[in-house]
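Holo prediction. Input below; ligand is zinc ion.
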Amino acid sequence: MASVWRCLSMSLLVAGVLWAQGLIVCGKCGREARAGDAVCRHCKEALPKPKADTPTAVEQPTAQADDKAEVGRLAAGIVEANVRLARELEAKQPELALCYYQNAMALMRLVPAGTFPDTVSEAILTGSARALSLVQRGTVPCKRCNGSGRYQLDLSKVDSSKGLKSVSGVPCPTCKGAGTLPGLKEVSKAKMQLLQGRTEFEQRQMVAGDVKVGRVLVPPALDKLLSNQQRALIMTGMPMPCRECQQTARQACTACRGSGWKPCDFEGCTQGVLKETRRTGARKERRLNEEAVKKCPRCDGLGEIPCPVCKGSGSVACSKCDGSGLAPRCTRCTGTGLMPCRRCKGTGDVKGAPCPECKGETQVLCPACRGEGAQSR
Ligand SMILES: [Zn+2]
Ligand SMILES: [Zn+2]
Ligand SMILES: [Zn+2]
Ligand SMILES: [Zn+2]
Ligand SMILES: [Zn+2]
Ligand SMILES: [Zn+2]
Ligand SMILES: [Zn+2]
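Structure of the complex:
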């Protein structure tokens, strides 16, 4: 186990602060605000001051102290198992590894402080971000060689003919002969892969006997010990994907239909070639021998330039979630997943006995989001 943590701790350079910091959520539209903002960027509503996203634990009566210790112990075991699997799967199935990292991240909220080294939470967060970026990574065809990987000889430099000739045996200098360049995977493909990863994760864990607590998968032994507060804690610790982009945070660029390229707009450029006509001499002579062919300087002879809207990537930030990749927070409970119990009016008892509705907890799962803290629909 120690080696797993050491290995994880090595990749802490990327700062993942999404779930680590106190959340600021707009009370009107439910969107997450940026730290330091006084008003919501969407609806201009005044924002509340930041608050910790983990509800403070209420001291349990001693009878429940054993349960709490057992919950912590079970959760720690699942976190270890999830992280080990995530590490194993990351290279080949990042979409599945992502689910295990996220499950571990959610359950870390039940693990008592001091159980693992301090760096573990951050390492899980980093691993999750890394897996998500691996899913998004893809290749795009090299424009310079049309995907052939071969050097394209400009024939106009050899003789008076136009066009390009593919030279075998000489690699394209742009893609080093690969025919493709690193880029982002098509949004639709990345979305599909993420959904497949989620399906496989659920199938694997349910075959193993796990049950769902929102989107978190846990063994029944843990499920039956959980209080409302603990349920909400793990459910809200699990990222709820944006319905439109499924955590890719992107949508296809409409300006270039997702290709990342647009026809070159340089004046006089026709498929990468500039035709210059010299005004000297008589008309007949000009037509015969003074039509100079020049490579367009803007597109370097390609005839196309990277789309200015998406900067050639083929995609832009998802407008539904503003590029966060996540569903908006629940406005009813402001993302905590909990609401005061109505039956006992938040006191925890009815006529001197523990409230049957909340079992004396004073809080129940938010009816709007079922404790998940986000708007899933
Ligand atoms: Zn708002
Ligand atoms: Zn190439
Ligand atoms: Zn051009
Ligand atoms: Zn574009
Ligand atoms: Zn989105
Ligand atoms: Zn809610
Ligand atoms: Zn109650």
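Residues 1-22, 51-57, 285-290 have pLDDT under 50 and may be disordered. That is the main takeaway for now.
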